[in-house]
Amino acid sequence: MRIVFFDSGVGGLTVMRDACRKLPSESYLYYADTLNVPYGTHSKEEVYGFVADCIDDILSRYEVRAIIIACNTATSVAVDDLRKRYSFPIIGMEPAVKPALQVVRESGRRVLATATPLTLKEDKFRRLLGKLEEPSRVDTLGLPGLVRFAEDGTFDGPEVREYLREQFAPFDLERYGAIVLGCTHFVFFKDAIRELIPVHMLVMDGNAGTVKQMMRVLELEESSGQVSEPDIVYMSSLGTEEDKRKLESCFRRLP
Ligand code: DGL
Predict the structure, then answer these.
(1) No. of H helices and E strands in the chain?
(2) What is the pTM assigned to this prediction?
(3) For this structure, is 183 an active site residue?
């Protein structure tokens, strides 16, 4: 039985990498819906259909121990229904807005929450803001361009920096204490983002929290055993060998 990490594309690899570091001896399966990426600019109904088809595809071939929806967008539209449909554990992700607000509380600074346009307009995100003590200190920014760059294998460079500069331009970043990366694809751009924001700003994502939750649900302890090659099967909705190689090499390039 495998622990499955699912995303529209390469973003969820960053979450699986964190899981592999803590649990190098588990068996993993990474599934990317490369046929339909990007999710963030589709409708909620379309994304729900994509996710359901992919999970059917996985279940037709593998026994699943748990599925980690390593995608904030898919989580926001599908996680509640998926949990009703399947008996194995389904772990989702959410933008780390709550911990970010806690971190900036003392300074009185603001939080900039970035995600895909679909995540930002979903009820789940509104409910998340509604539970916060000071939601008015959170501003949002959709960065769908970063998903395209990541899928093209462009993780830094002049085009990426130009795009980010343009997107950040309307914000006076000196007033912000943290930026939340509410899309797993954005994690690839952490270094580029860090260089474009004031030094006092923290860059926060939900990866560590998701892996912690996965370990809690599956009752797994961090293992210290050295395994040089984690056992990972790569799958994609396109199903080509080239696609699988792309995922594998992207995973290997992660720091
Ligand atoms: N990686 C995704 C997320 O965390 C989705 C990106 C996309 O397909 O638009 O939201």
Answers:
(1) 11, 9
(2) 0.95
(3) yes
